[in-house]
Design a protein that fits this description.
This protein is α/β, with parallel strands linked by helices and 135 residues long. It is built from 6 helices and 5 strands. The termini are far apart.
Length: 135
């Protein structure tokens, strides 16, 4: 996916908690629904590995920062798409319209880039993930 010569817009619309999440992150733009979660492992799986008990799933979820808001603060999400009152399932038509508008907006921005610049920016985006600064 990193070498695709066309724009890639990924949208997290529910719960992503598997290795497939890695592929979703190889994109030019990542958007998430307001109440979606995104990680490469579920909080239960993480807790089972770290603490040998799925009972610590809340602690794992907090440490993982898997919500749209937390991932946005980490600089991993390009836009959080607002959901209707009560969640996306409460008004699918409105949610579909909001998601379509966000996808088209981001697509218009990245489709303007020449192929070489598109690939270079995608590479820079991937290389910047996980970078931290000691305080």
């Amino acid at each position: 996916m990193a070498t695709l010569k066309v724009p890639v817009i990924s949208a997290v619309i529910g719960e992503g908690g598997s290795g497939g999440a890695l592929a979703i992150g190889v994109c030019d733009r990542l958007i998430m629904l307001q109440y979606a979660v995104y990680s490469v492992i579920s909080p239960e799986g993480c807790a089972s590995i770290l603490w040998k008990s799925a009972d610590k799933k809340e602690l794992a979820a907090e440490a993982m920062g898997i919500t749209a808001e937390r991932l946005d603060k980490f600089g991993l999400v390009d836009e959080i798409v607002k959901e209707p009152l009560g969640g996306a399932h409460r008004d699918p038509q409105v949610m579909a319209g909001n998601l379509k508008a966000a996808i088209l907006r981001h697509l218009r921005e990245v489709e303007q880039l020449p192929e070489e610049q598109l690939l270079a920016k995608r590479y820079e985006r991937l290389r910047a993930q996980g970078v931290y600064r000691a305080v």
